[in-house]
Task: structure prediction
Amino acid sequence: MPPGQNYFDTMFSGNDDPWGFKTRWYEVRKRAITLASLPQPRYQNAFEPGCANGELSADLAQRCDRLLCTDGAARAVELAKQRLINFSHVTVAQAWIPKDWPVGQFDLIVISELAYFISPDSLDQLAVKAQAALAPSGTLLACHWRRPISGCELTGDAVHECLKKHLNVAHAVQWQDADFRLDMWFGDGRSVGDLQGLS
Result:
């Protein structure tokens, strides 16, 4: 069984940063690579499920006109709201993915360190819903820890292979090291150089 709500509530009980998003160089480096991998400098309407305490969200907010962040843990939602209080164009809500997937289309969807916490069947549902919600020229970026996680059926690699199977979008970037894997799908299909008119 994948971790349930109690697992995440416990993670945030007495610890506002249980994964060290603010302090670990691993996390700082991963965020920098994530942000640098996005092919567009700015997005109109973005969605980040599993936002935790909002550290990545704060960086995404600077590149989006609208950003919806969700998390299943009530304390994580509180912390993300505090972290993002100065960004009036950001909405933070409590939701369990994929069950509570939002209505509408997004030109950026970021699924980071989330999808191995759900079951394989739920991951299939997530991939289908993400495909349906992605704007035709939109970007979907996934980034996950590659090593086994106690209590999780899925690894980061398994998550990304499932997304590759379901997404009918041009696969533009794959980057990995021993720790994490990042894949990016871009509906426009052009490289950053082509987008900039470079020859």
User: Anything to note?
Assistant: The longest helix spans residues 120-133.
